[in-house]
Amino acid sequence: MKIHNFSAGPCVLPQEVLQKSAEAVIDFDNGLSLIEISHRSKAFVDVMENARALALELMGLEGKGYKALFLAGGASLQFVMVAQNLLEKRAGYLNTGTWSKKAIKEAKIYDDIYEVASSESAGFNYIPKGYDIPSDYDYFHCTSNNTIFGTQMKSFPDCEIPMVCDMSSDIFSRTLDFSKFGLIYAGAQKNMGPAGTTLVVVHEDILGKVSRKIPAMLDYKEHIKAGSMYNTPPVFPVYVSMLNLQWLKKLGGIAGIEKENEKKAQLIYSEIDLNPLFKGYAVKEDRSNMNATFTLENENLKETFETMLKEAGISGLSGHRSVGGYRASMYNALSLDSVKALVEVMSELERKA
Ligand code: PMP
């Protein structure tokens, strides 16, 4: 039976990427496994260079002063590195959920943080708009897609200071003017690859402006100088990410996948809106195309619904423990057919109820 994987991350990856990754673990370079060769070997250096170049190419950022890095430590380490490298006096943060809060908490260790706006009092079910960003701050930080609450920034403010964005859960899913950002980071384990590496895309001009000494492992400049190989990089996650970016390019790049992502989102949200048994969590205008959050209005139907999901091969639909309900994560590699299968179960439940 086909399993429809709606997991929020780590999550579904294209079958062909999984297949090639598995093969490389056995034989990548003349009988040697990808994970037993030197990261300094030509074969792996090529992988790293390809992955870095593809990331910039897909984002339309080649030749524009940006560098792509594949670092370890998860997106959570970027909460720290961003502040280490960029925060001198004060920074502005948009608080749209759990991950923004964590980013703010880490940055506060370094200096004062100003929350330009927050949707916390409404349970983070919308994206604040119309806030001011002081032009004398070091940077502005936002989270493009709130994985847990299912909200997504549909537009970004015009910002005179460097804009830093956590794009962990919607990177490579929609066309954006990526050159609006000074720094973008994203944990691999949603739209890019397995857990273990984080993509950082940074404009070199914004670096080297803080007075503190930065330990080498936390210093973007050191990582850039070393070609993202300051120390042993997470070779397997970088390789899988490279394959996944190649897969995306073949499909027509971000613009190609964006159309599919819109179809999937329209399908699930129209079911949520039409089916009286379900209720969406996020306000309509800010709904995420990646993570659709919803609840089942009648608790008595929970068991029946969950049995039906299981029978249909639908997995990973539980909402985050802090929100409850359900969350359908529809990352790039999830097919429209999987969303159709879920919608079919939802409408079947309505017929039965
Ligand atoms: N930011 C966002 C938007 C996320 O969804 C996540 C993880 N789900 C993180 C940051 C943290 O990522 P990591 O576990 O790689 O540190």
SSE string: EHHEHEHEEEEEEEHHHEEHEEH
Which radius of gyration do the C-alpha atoms yield?
21 Å
Task: Give me the CATH superfamily of the largest domain.
Answer: Type I PLP-dependent aspartate aminotransferase-like (Major domain)
Which molecules other than protein and nucleic acid are bound? 4'-deoxy-4'-aminopyridoxal-5'-phosphate
From the 3D structure, determine the CATH topology of the largest domain. Aspartate Aminotransferase, domain 2
Count of β-strands:
14
Distance between the termini: 26 Å
For the largest beta sheet, what order do the strands appear in spatially?
A: 2-10-9-8-5-3-4
Shape: globular
Q: Give the C-level CATH assignment of the largest domain.
A: Alpha Beta
Structural class: alpha/beta
- The averaged pLDDT comes out at 97
Which range does the strand content fall in?
A: 15-25%
The biggest beta sheet reads:
7 strands, mixed
The CATH architecture term of the largest domain is 3-Layer(aba) Sandwich
Put simply, the count of helices is 9
Helical fraction equals 25-40%
